[in-house]
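quick one: adenosine-5'-diphosphate bound model?
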Amino acid sequence: MNKLLLEVNDLGVVYRGRGRRKDKVALDGVSVAIGAGETLGLVGESGSGKSTLGGCVLGLVRPEHGSITFDGRDITRLAARDRRTLSTQIQAVFQDPYSSFNPHRTIEQTVSETLTNLPRMSRQDRRTRVVAMLERVGLDGSALERFPAQFSGGQRQRIAIARALLPEPRLVVCDESVSALDLSVQAQVLNLLLELQADSGVTYLFITHDLSVVRHMSTRVAVLEHGHLVEEGGAREVTDHPTHPYTRKLIAASPGSDAEVQEARRETRRAMARLEAGGTDADVHALHALEIQAVIEALAEPLSGATGGFARVLNEFTHEPVALDKLVRLRAAILDLAPRTSAAMTSEVVNRRVADARERLCRSLAENDRALHFAAQCREILVAIDSRQRERAVSVVASFDDTRVAEHRATTGRP
Amino acid sequence: MLGVIVRRLLLAAPLMVIISLIVFVLGSLAPGSVAESMLGSSATPEAVRELNRQLGADQPVLVQYWSWLQRAVAGDLSSSIVSGRPVTELLAARLPVTLSLAVGALLLVIVIGVCSGMVAAVRGGFAGRVVEVLAVLVRGLPTFWLAMIAGVIFGVNLMWVPVSGYVPFGDSPSDWALSLALPVGVLAFGEAALVAIVTRAEMLAAMRSDYVRSLRANGYPWKRIVFKHIAKNAAGPVLTMISLVFVGLLGGTILMEQIFAMPGLGSQMVTSTANHDLPVIQGLAVFYTAMVVVVFLLTDVAHGLLNPKVMAR
Amino acid sequence: MSAVIEGASADAELRAAAERDAGFLRRLARQPLTVGSAAVLFLVVLAVVFAPLLSPSGPMEQDLLNIYALPSADHLLGTDQLGRDILSRMLHGGRVTLLGVVQATTVCTLIGMTLGLLAGTLQGGVEVLVMRVCDVLLAVPGLVLLLVVLAIFGQNETAAMITLGIIMSPTLIRVVYSATVAVREEPYVAGARVAGLNSRQIIMRHILPAVAGPALTQISLVAALACLVEAAIGFLGLGVVPPNPSWGNMVTDAQQAIVLAPWMLVPSGGIIAVVALSLTLIGNGIRDAYAGRASGSVSAYSWRALTPVVEREDRRPAPAEVKGVELETDRPAPVLSVKRLSLDLPRGRSHVRIVDGVSFDVGPGEALGIVGESGCGKSMTISGVLRVVPMGARVVAESIGFRGVELTTLGESEMNAVRGTGIAFISQEPISSLNPAFTVGHQLQEAVRLHRGTGRAESKAVAHDLMSRVRLPEAEVVGRKYPHELSGGMAQRIAIARALAGEPDLLVADEPTTALDVSVQAEILDLLRDLREQSGMALILVTHDWGVVAEACDRAMVMYAGEVVETAPVRDLVSNPHHPYTQALLRSSSVGAEPRQLLPVISGSVPAPGSWPTGCRFAARCGLVQDRCLTAPVPLVPTTGGVSARCVLVPSTLEAVR
Ligand SMILES: Nc1ncnc2c1ncn2[C@@H]1O[C@H](COP(=O)(O)OP(=O)(O)O)[C@@H](O)[C@H]1O
Ligand code: SF4
Ligand SMILES: [Mg+2]
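yep, here:
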C-alpha cells in the first residue's frame, strides 16, 4: 500500500432515536485505511453503514468513538473552522444528480463553491479555473450561466465531479456516485473518474452497493454488514475469492447478464432450498447443482489461477489405489473452480450435509472402481475449460455419477 | 385510542392556562385600574386604593392570576364591572346564539367544503376552476361587507329571511333556523372554499401517488379508490384545515352578531371592549379559547382514528 | 397544492419546473393577473400616500345640502350622510388602514422569518419550543384577542396591529420552518457544507432563496388578512374614532344608510376588497411563479383526466415489420398482442410523443423483458397497455389484443374489469405502492373480495394462502402491519400477492426489484419465476438491468427513444446482439471488464422525446452510422431465429422471402 492517506480506527456511530424510536448503531468498531492515490471500495447492502462512514470522513456525522486520521492528523472532531479549511483537501460526489444541486443557482455559482476556502482570487481567475475544470470533465464554458435543470443526469454528475475536484483535493468521497445513472452513462462517468485519478493522483473512497462497479474501480475493497466490517483486502482477492459468507452471499446474489450462469445459480438456490426443507436425496442434488454451477461460473468468468488449485490436486492422481480422502479432496476442489458457487452462502449445517453427500458419492465411486475414470473426467473438464467448451464441460460434470445425466435432464429440461 | 384522548387532554389543559395567563397579564398592563373605572373619575385616591385592596388588585399579577384561576376552575369567572352581573351568567345567556352560529357554520363548511372539493378533484374542469376562484375571493372580500350585501339582497329586496335579530330555538325552531340562515350562510360561504381547496389539493396529490396507480392498474373500481383509499389519506390535512377554519369562524361570529344584531358572546365582547369591562373580556376570551381547544381535541381524535402513524407516535 | 404530474415525484417535478428557466421574476412578470394586481395596488398606495394633494376636498368637509349623493363630476364617488366627499374620505381613511397593514405585516414578517429560520436551522430545544408556541398561538381566536388588546390599550390602533402581527405569525413561522427543514434535508446543503461553506453562507445562498417563495406568498396573504381585519376593527367602531375616516368605519356609515343609499356600500367595501384581492392574487402569482407553472394550471387535473383518450389507428397497408411478425406462425396464440402502440403526454398546450409505434406479443407463460435506459418509454409502454397513464395522456394503437379481446374498443369500465383479473400490475416502489392508511392484511383481503367475490372469512383464508404462496411467514402478524412497518422485500411480496388475488393471466412488473438490495432482488425474481411455473401466468418485466433480464425473462425487447430497436430470445440477445445500440450497451458494462481500465462507452445521451431525428434515432451515438441511416426512419425487420432489429446493417429475412 502507498503512504497512508486516511486511516479510520475503531469507528463507532450511533444515531440517537427521537421519541419512541430506538437508538441505531450505524457503525461498530470499523477500521479501514487508504493509501494515497488508491481507491478503497466500500460495499454493503442498504443500511450497512457505508454512507455513515463517508459522512464521518466528511465531518457530516459525529462518531461516538474511534478516530479518523487524515494525512497523519486527527480529524475526528474538528472545530467548524478547521473543518472548512480541510474542505479544500477532502471533497465529495454524491449519489443523486438531481437533488445535489440547488435548482436556483447557476453552474458557475455551484461549482465555484468549493473554492470558498482557498485564498481569495479574482473573479476572472476563478472563472478561468472553473472553465478549465468543466472542460476537463467534458463540458464547456457555455455551462457557466445555465441552471442544473438544463443538464441530463450524466452531465450533472460530471459537474458534481468538476466541483469536487476544483480545489485539487487529495481525497474524494464518492457516495453511490454512479448508482442513479444508466449503464451507458455510468461507463462514461467511471472512465472519467479513472482518468482524473490517473492525472492527478487523487484518492477515492468509493461507496457503492454494486459489486461489479466496485471491482472495476477499486484497489482495495472493504465489505460492511450491519455496521460491522466483515472483510477487507485487495479488490481482486475480495471480489474473486471472498472468504466471508456475507461477501459470498452478496456476490452470488448479484445477477450477471449470462443467462446460463443465472440458471445454474438458480438451480443451486433451489437445490439448497430443497435440502433445507429435507427432501429425499436432496443432499446429492445440492452437490450436483453446486458442481455444475462451479464449472459454468469458471467458464463464464475465468480467473487466473482458479483452475491451478484443481490441477494440482488432480496431478496427485497418477496411480491406484486411490485413497478415499484424496478422491474426496479432488471432488471438493471442483467447487473451488469458481469462488462464486453458492456453497459459501449457505449455513454450516447445509455445508456439512453436502460434504456428507460428497463422501458418500466418492465411496461409491471407489467401490465401483471408477476413481480413475473420475480423474479422467476431471482432466477432460480442465481441458474443456481451457478451450472454452461449455457444453462439453457441463456434460462431463453432469455424468459424474451414473444417475446424473437423466436427473439433470429431468430437472432442467435441457439435454 | 383512549391513550390518544388522554394525552391530548393533558396537552389541552396547559394550553388553557397559558392563554388565560396571557390575557390576564395583558389585562394587568392596562392603564388605570379596575377600581378606577368602577368608581369613575371623581373618586378619591383613598377610595380607589381601598377598593383595589378589596378586589385584590394591589397584589402581584401572578397572585391575582392564581386566585382568579382557582375561582375559574370552581366555575366563578368574577363579575362585570359595568352591570355587576356574574360573567358566567352572561356567558350562559348568550352562548346559545354564538354556538348556533359557529356550529351551524362549521357543519355547513364541512358539508359544502368537502363535497365541492371532491367534485372539483374528481370532475375537474369547471368545478375545479370555480373552487379556485372562490378561494381567492374569500381571501380578498371582507365578510362583514358581504354580509351586508347579502342582507340587502335576501333580507331587504327578496325578503326571504329576516334582516336581523335572533329567535331562540325554544321559541320557534323554524324562525330560529331562518334567523340563522343569513349569518351562517355568509360565514360558511367564506370558509368552505378554503376547505374545498385543501380537499381538492390533497385528493389530487393522492391521485398522483404510487398506490393509486397500483390500485388503478389492478382494476379497483374508481368509487372504491376515491371514496375509500384516497379519502382516508386526504382526510388528515382536511381535518386540520377544518379545525383552523373553526378559529376563523369564531372571529366571524363576532362580526355577524354585530351586523345582524344578535345577542351573542361576540356582541357582548364588542360592548365590553368599548366599556373596558375587563373581567368580562377575560372570561369571554378564555371561553372562546376553550371552544377552540375542544374542537382541536375532536379533530385530533379523528386524526388518530384515521392515521395509523399518528396513533403510533 | 402543485401541478405535479403523476409518475414524477412531487419534489422532482417542482424542482424541474422551478429550474425550467430559473428567472423567478421573469416568470412572475409573465403573469398578467399578478402584474395587474401589483399595478392596482401600487396606484392605490400612491393615491393614499398623496391623499392631501389628491383629494378634491377635506375628509371632514360637510355639505349638508348634498347628502347621499350619487357619483357626479363634483363627487366622483358620491357623498355620505353628512355630505362629505366619499373619495376624499377614502383616500384619507386609507392612510390608517394601510399603515396598519404595514405595521402588522412587518411585525409578522420579522417574527415569522426569524423564528421560522431559527427553529428550522437550530433544531433541538429551540425547534420544539418554537413549534409548541405556534401551536398555542394557532388556538387563539385572533379577533377575540384583538378585542382584548383594544379594550386594554384604549382602542390603540398601533397596539392592535402589532398584536395582529403576532397572532398571524404562527402560520408564517410554520411555512418558513417547513421550507427550511425541507432544504436542510436536501443533499445540496450537505454538499455545500462539504464544499466548505459556513452556516451564514449556507443560509444566505441556499436556505433563504428556497424559503423566499413560500414566505413571500404567505406574507402577501398575511397582508391581505391584515387589511380585512383592520377594516373589521374599524367597522366594529373600535379603531379610529369617527368623524375621522377609516375604511372600516366608512362601511359602518354605509350600513346605517343601507336602505337610503345602498350605493355607499360599493365604494366603502369595494376599496377594501380591491386591496385585499390584489394582495391575494399577488400571493397566488408568487406561488405559481415559484413552482414554475402557469397560473391556474391545476384546474386541468382531476380524476377524470386520468382516463386517457384512446384512439384506434386504422390498419395501415401492412408495413414491413408487421408482415414480418406475422410470418412467425409456429408460436401459440399470444396472451397479449400489441400492434403499433403510441402514447402522447401533454406538454404545454400540445402533446409530445413518448412511445412511438411499439408492437410486441407475449405468449402464454412467457416472460418478456423490456430493457433500455431510463426515459426510453418502457414504463409508458406498459402504462399505455393498461391505460393507467398520467393525467391528460393520449393512447393511440392499431390493436391491443388480450386473450382475443380487442382492448382499444373497450370503455373505461370494461377495461377496468380486465385489469386485476386479466392483467395485474406491481410497481417499482413496493412500500409506496401500498396504501399507507390500511393494514396490508386488509388490503390483501380487499383485493381478494374484489376479484373473487368471496365473503369475509373466505377472503381471509385466501389472503393467507396467497401470503404463503409469496413465502411470507406468519400471515397473521404481517397482515396486521401497515406498509411503513415492512421492509422493501416484504412489501413487494405483499404487492405481488395482491396482484395474484385476481388470478391474472399476465403480470406486469415495472422495475420490481430496482429499489431492493441484491439478495432480496434474487429472492423476488426466484419467487416470480416459481409463481409463473406454478400458474402458467405470463410476465412482462420492465427493467434497465441486464442481469435481471437474464435472470427472469425468456425474451427481451430493447427500447431506445420511444421505439423498439431489437427483440430476441434473452440468451441470443446477450450473447449475440444484433443492433449496434444493444452491442455497445452490453460492452459498456463493468461486469467482467478488466478492472481499472477504461470501458468502451457510448458517447452522448438518449435524445429527449420531442427531439427525435427523422432517421435512425441512435445515429448520433452510433459508431457505424452511414448516410442512409439519416434520411428515413429505419424499420424493425425480422432476421433469423426470432430476432428482429431496427438497423440498416442488420440483414432482413424479408428480402429472402420476397
Ligand atoms: N408523468 C410524466 N409526465 C411527463 N413526462 C413523463 C412522465 N413520465 C414519464 N415521462 C417522460 O416520458 C419519457 C419516457 O418515460 P418512461 O416510460 O418512464 O421511461 P422508462 O420507463 O424507459 O424509464 C421520458 O422522457 C419521461 O421524461
Ligand atoms: S441504422 Fe445506422 S445509425 Fe442506426 S444503429 Fe444502425 S448503423 Fe447505427
Ligand atoms: Mg421506468
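The pocket of adenosine-5'-diphosphate (ligand 1) is lined by residues C 5-8, 345, 354, 372, 374-380, 390, 608-609 (CB under 6 Å).
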